[in-house]
Amino acid sequence: MAVAHFAYDVPIQNENTGIPATDGEVVAITSLLGGGGLFFVVAGIALRRWLLNRTNGS
User: Fold this and answer.
1) Distance between CA 21 and CA 24 in Å, rounded?
2) Are 9 and 20 in contact (CB under 8 A)?
3) What SS3 string covers the chain?
4) How far apart are CA 22 and CA 14, in angstroms?
5) What is the CA radius of gyration of the chain?
């Protein structure tokens, strides 16, 4: 959605007010969602590595 907003000038509206979201709001939400996703990826990789090392006895 952020690509459509920045590349093709598609307006994203604030659900509460109905006014178009600013570029800063779009960047903030995209960063928040991306950062949350990145956190879960890193946590999953760390957990998997820990479990594999534990079962192999290393």
Assistant:
1) 8
2) no
3) CHHHHHHHCCCCECCCCCCECCHHHHHHHHHHHHHHHHHHHHHHHHHHHHHHHHHHCC
4) 9
5) 19
Predicted confidence at residue 8, as pLDDT, reads: 75
Which residues contact residue 37 at a Cβ distance below 8 angstroms, ignoring those fewer than 6 apart?
Answer: none
What is residue 57's predicted lDDT score, i.e. its pLDDT?
Answer: 59
For residue 49, the model assigns a pLDDT of: 93
- 2-57 residue pLDDT tens: 777 777 777 777 778 888 888 888 888 889 989 999 999 999 999 999 998 887 75
List b or e across 36-52, with b for residues whose CB sees 16 or more CB atoms inside 10 angstroms.
Answer: eeeeeeeeeeeeeeeee
Supply 41's token pair. 């990826």
